[in-house]
């Protein structure tokens, strides 16, 4: 094929690129995968342009290449199995929920083992989300006193959690 004829025919490839992109997007459902498939399709079309039969539908030829490339890619992925992004490879998987349930039970036992005064102040500040000022007003304490009691109660709770099996306070 003369070089000028080849350049004319390859220039007509460009007018089909938007349609190829749309079709690839419909097939792949992912913009990156669709772009890769179109790229591979165009590379293959240019490399094998000598096989294109003049007078036949160029668009059909390109769509056939694209579709075959998509099918080949699906088959490769099926053989390879699912891929995992590099930043997620170390993830051991989702937790079954048992660990969280055990941790919550340990927390409840430790919280129950606190003195009633510690439980009350942690409940107000930590659970209910009250400010130190409103907690102080409710308990008739200065803000500094509330802060120090919250700190000490948290430290006692942390100690109970680290010690394991706390006994419930009376």
What does this structure look like?
By secondary structure, the protein is mostly helical. The protein folds into 2 domains: 7-81, Orthogonal Bundle (Rna Polymerase Sigma Factor, Chain: A); 108-163, Winged helix-like DNA-binding domain superfamily/Winged helix DNA-binding domain (Arc Repressor Mutant, subunit A, Orthogonal Bundle). The chain has 8 helices and no strands. Helix 2 (17-28) crosses helix 3 and helix 6 crosses helix 8 (143-163). The N and C termini lie far apart (96 Å).
Give the ordered list of helices and strands. HHHHHHHH
Over the alpha carbons, how many angstroms does the gyration radius reach? 34 Å
Query: What is the helix fraction of residues, given as a range?
Result: over 70%
Overall pLDDT confidence: 84
Q: Which superfamily, in CATH terms, is the homologous superfamily of the largest domain?
A: RNA polymerase sigma factor, region 2, helix turn helix motif
Oligomeric grouping of the chains: single chain
* Total DSSP helices: 8
CATH topology term of the largest domain: Rna Polymerase Sigma Factor, Chain: A
**How far do the termini sit from each other?**
96 Å
Largest sheet: none
Query: Any idea of the CATH class of the largest domain?
Result: Mainly Alpha
Structure classification:
mainly alpha
Structurally, how many domains make up the residues? 2
